[in-house]
Amino acid sequence: MKKILLLTLLSIYTSLHAQIKDTLVKVGNHSLYFHITEGTGCPIIFESGGGNDGSVWKDVMMLIAKKINAPLIAYDRAGFGKSNIDTTNININTEVTDLYNSLNKLGFKDDYFFVAHSLGAAYTMKFANDNKNTVRGAVFIDVVNPYFLTAERAKSIKTQFSNELSAIKQESIGFYQLILNYENTAKVMRESAENFNIPLTIIASGITPFEGQTRTEFIEGLKKFSQEQDNRKYILMNDAEHFVFYDKPEEVANEIIKLYTNLNLPDSGK
Known about the structure:
Layout: H1 2-16, E1 20-27, E2 30-37, E3 44-47, H2 58-65, E4 72-76, H3 92-105, E5 112-117, H4 120-130, E6 135-141, H5 151-160, H6 165-171, H7 173-180, H8 182-193, E7 200-207, H9 212-226, E8 232-241, H10 244-247, H11 249-262
Parallel strand pairs: 3-4, 3-5, 5-6, 6-7, 7-8
Antiparallel strand pairs: 1-2, 2-4
Helix pairs in contact: 2-11, 3-4, 4-8, 5-8, 6-7
């Protein structure tokens, strides 16, 4: 009995005192900032939505670290947060390559599990398409998808920002480049989605960032995307907004842990 109690206390202590590492990784002419909760086995990589840096995942990462010992990795894409940017060579293709090379430099070279929010799904699908058989599974949270982000809609969204580009450039060089590349990012996402067949949990919000018919189309497109393959699970959280993991952190963390452990990834449990 004493031994069981000691092991339980040790597990709690370890989860509350997981080693945290913040580091910059040089890729080409710029550096990317990584926030890592150290662990063993297949790492969980967190892809933020458009305009966000990796800090949005802080609370969810803490919840996950209490229950499993996987390495948890959030990062700032080029031009956001603490990452700088090479404006002469920035698009989704180079960004995904830079992420892969950075993970390799950090010692993560084989298997990956992704959690993506919103536009982050485009980067995850491109990563999986470029690096076959390395992404073992993913959780998508209220993400853009091929049925919603058509060429016409991507062009329309980009046009909405056309009169604000000068101000946006002054405020955020990362978001400025994201807008300039938006149509291409959407095109790459649609192409990558055609061969995206990994186990997937899709969490949708009932309160998307859109209104009226556009909101309906966003929700319906995400549900249709989830029904394309048998290895996709769809969850609708009606009373959550677009940042579902802000409104439902425990539920989101539990779904991430559930898929991760069900895949029997190496060293996935404490």
